[in-house]
Amino acid sequence: MLTSVVRIVDDEESVRDSRRFLLELEGFQVAVFDSAESFLERDDAKRPGCLVLDLRMPGMSGLELQQEMNVRGYALPIIFLTGNGDIDM
Questions:
Q1: 3-state percent breakdown (helix, strand, coil) of the chain, nearest 5
Q2: Which pLDDT score is estimated for 85?
Q3: Are 9 and 35 in contact (CB under 8 A)?
């Protein structure tokens, strides 16, 4: 049986590291990615878990990543976070 993993995708290293630290402190297994593209290249889609996703990143945005995941049939719960959001998001 595969262990669940919390995936964190954020372009800011300090944000990734602090979220990873807090989640690992609570006993979660965590994988971090510095971009949406690296997530798509390196993540194991077979592993259960969830995704903590920054909305605004250089290159592919969090919303664009969600769309690509839908196209690929990648059904993973997503928690969106951003420091710069608006109502339309």
A1: 35, 20, 45
A2: 56
A3: yes
